[in-house]
Amino acid sequence: MTPTLLGRWQTRLFLFATVGLLITLPFYWGIISPNTGFPSYPVFFRILAYVVLFGLGWDILYNYLQKFRWDRDWPGVLQLLAGIWEGGFLLSIVKLFGLPSIPKEVSPLWFIIHYSLVWLGVYVASQSLMRIVFPRWRFRGGRLI
Asked: How far apart are CA 125 and CA 15, in angstroms?
């Protein structure tokens, strides 16, 4: 599949709104959390929102770079590596500058745990479930609508 920019955006928004949200809920409820004494951790939803927001910008760059590949497509391993890059970038921004509604003191360990689980969930869903649930998704450049 050669995703278009609109297809990338639609797929990213859909996967993070479904898979990302489902994986973030246990963190929010405190089932998986750094301190079990607090009732909820909304910072994890904020992190998810920034992952999506920055990801929409990264997709512009990925779409541009993809045009230089001979087959105009990304192998799965490059998608996985992009997730590592995006996570490292976001954690660096949070730690160096801070982001609105995310404290600089956010634990890097819990950020990495949450981000890794979300990214792996989204990656696996994009490589498997999307192809099963939306069989024409691959042939429409990743567009859902």
From this structure: 8
Predicted model pTM: 0.85
Q: What is the 3-state secondary structure (H, E, C) of the chain?
A: CCCCHHHHHHHHHHHHHHHHHHHHHHHHHCCCCCCCCCCCCCHHHHHHHHHHHHHHHHHHHHHHHHCCCCCCCCCHHHHHHHHHHHHHHHHHHHHHCCECCECCCCCHHHHHHHHHHHHHHHHHHHHHHHHHHCCCHHHHCCCCC
Residue ranges for the chain with pLDDT beneath 50 = 36-39
Q: Helix 76-96 vs helix 108-124: angle between axes, to the nearest 10 degrees?
A: 150
